[in-house]
Write a structure and sequence with these properties.
The protein is an alpha/beta fold. Helices cover about 35% and strands about 25% of the residues. The structure holds adenosine-5'-triphosphate (ATP). This is ABC transporter ATP-binding protein.
């Protein structure tokens, strides 16, 4: 594998449910350090794509290569261990556990199962790393709060911080600002994007708010009816007639 090997390559990736193609012909190549927004109206196939890359859905056809390795069909734990991580539209947390415990559990789950007992247990190093990461996301103040008691926006921040445990190379965020009020969205993105980028992570995020896309993406992939409509620079994609007609005009999301 050379340094020029793309981080993520999908070829003709497809997922159908029954006879319905939720996402098809998805061929992209993403390099290291890119910041890519995935846009598209409701039901366009964005989450289906993220679910395939992260192993939550098995593709019906096509392939996924990560750092040159074929990872098609790996399960979520395997993709996580390979260095691909994600957050969810609705934060996936253990509500009874504290924020710090959620971070630690993520770290243990992402560790190699064949490691020694110590490698998969609660060590001081693991606690320190989890606390340091919470601090980087400005979340140290809620470290000992049960996750289930946190406000929605903070839960989403914690879910994203959990995706950053163990310095993954590729992070996919599924609608990081959904459910966050309009006037708090930018601040919330500021608080999560900077810590993610400080590790040179490659970032792909699904977003419906074009102000956020303009501010945080360098490249945009627009989905429409399960296919890629256009993949290019932010300026090019947001000025595209079809994107304006079918994607931006068709946004029906909070
Ligand atoms: N598990 C499933 N079973 C059947 N159909 C599904 C399933 N998951 C997704 N679909 C369908 O696949 C299509 C794409 O859905 P997907 O969730 O990927 O869209 P999306 O672009 O992420 O939309 P949104 O912005 O609303 O989250 C939709 O028509 C959806 O109804």
């Amino acid at each position: 594998m050379s340094d020029n090997t793309p981080l993520l390559v999908t070829e003709n990736l497809e997922k159908s449910f029954g006879g319905v193609v939720a996402a098809g012909n998805i061929s992209i190549s993403v390099g290291r350090g890119e910041q890519v927004a995935i846009i598209g109206s409701n039901g366009a196939g964005k989450t289906t794509f993220v679910n395939m890359v992260t192993g939550y859905l098995t593709p019906s056809a096509g392939s996924i290569r990560y750092l040159g390795r074929d990872i098609t069909g790996l399960n979520p734990r395997q993709t996580a261990r390979a260095g691909i991580r994600r957050s969810f539209q609705i934060a996936q947390l253990f509500p009874q556990m504290t924020a710090l415990e959620n971070m630690i559990i993520t770290d243990i789950a992402a560790s190699e199962s064949k490691g020694s007992f110590r490698a998969r247990s609660l060590t001081d190093a693991r606690m320190d790393a989890a606390m340091a990461l919470l601090k980087r996301f400005g979340l140290e103040g809620i470290a000992n709060e049960p996750a289930g008691t946190l406000p929605q926006g903070v839960r989403k921040q914690l879910d994203i911080a959990m995706a950053a445990v163990n310095d993954p190379a590729l992070i996919l965020l599924d609608e990081p600002t959904s459910g966050v009020s309009a006037d708090e969205k930018m601040e919330m993105m500021d608080s999560v994007i900077q810590p993610l980028l400080s590790d040179d992570a490659t970032l792909m995020f699904i977003e419906h708010d074009m102000d956020i896309v303009r501010r945080y993406a360098r490249r945009v992939i627009a989905f429409y009816e399960g296919q890629i409509l256009i993949d290019g620079s932010v300026e090019e994609v947001l000025a595209d007639d079809k994107v304006r007609q079918y994607v931006i005009g068709g946004v029906a999301h909070a």
